Please model this.
Amino acid sequence: MEIIRIPRIMREASREYLVRGRTLGFVPTMGALHEGHLSLVRMSKEENAITAVSIFVNPLQFGPSEDFSRYPRTVDEDIEKLRNEDVDILFLPAETLMYPEGFATVVEVKELSEKMCGRYRPGHFRGVLTVVAKLLIILRPTRAYFGQKDYQQTVLIRKMTKDLGLDVEIIVCPTIREHDGLAMSSRNAYLGKEQRAAATTLYRALSQASAAVKAGARSGEAVRAIMQAELSKEALLTGIDYASVFSPETLEETPEIAGKVLLAIAARLGSTRLIDNMLVAP
Ligand code: AMP
Model:
């Protein structure tokens, strides 16, 4: 595995592959890699000649009171995991090379980025889209791989690449879960033992809501109530940003369930904010 730290070198390397007609799959991450990340890597390896992974804890996407400084950084273990997966390139840029002094450009998708998590994390998606746009321009991958776990992010990235005419196929991969249903996340490392046990409440609430929709529930309000009732049993939850039923396209809450819907929850356990979602069709 080649480790590249300089954006210019990364750009030259990927251009080389592309002129030789080789397909390049790209998996952007913030590191602290787990099976969720590795599932994206495996999908990319299946579909492309070359697979590149990036690890970059992007300061632009953290709010001033968020966890940028304590975000888990496990680069040595990450390198080991990527070597075991036979990844071709690891792009590991320094912050000063991604955002040199005077960096002043942002990428924003209006409206969609203000829904759901956007309401609670102002500026978050602007940071995500700016770094993803920059990475896609540096690497020019054939395909880029993202997890459904961050559903809103996938909608915004699709919209951004379409609007800007970036020539890349966006592939969304299923959420990988722990044995008890908890969606894998680098942030799960923050959870204490009791909080870790409590965290499965998100999965339970989504599963019950999903079962209700499959069984014929058609009222958004009724399905919301099912999720709220399950979450309210968990005393360790310190806040619920949302637990609701959304349109998978507009990300608006849906009063009526007519077609496929997105069930999604964002909730806090102490200072750890967890998100999870399921797509379900009646
Ligand atoms: P992150 O390092 O958290 O920014 O995540 C990098 C990529 O991995 C994003 O596209 C995430 O959606 C994806 N990802 C994170 N957790 C999971 C998971 N449990 N299952 C599948 N993909 C995931």
In short: The mean pLDDT is 98. Residues 29-30, 36-37, 39-40, 146-147, 149-150, 173, 175-176, 183-186 surround adenosine monophosphate (CB under 6 Å). DSSP finds ten helices and nine strands in the chain.
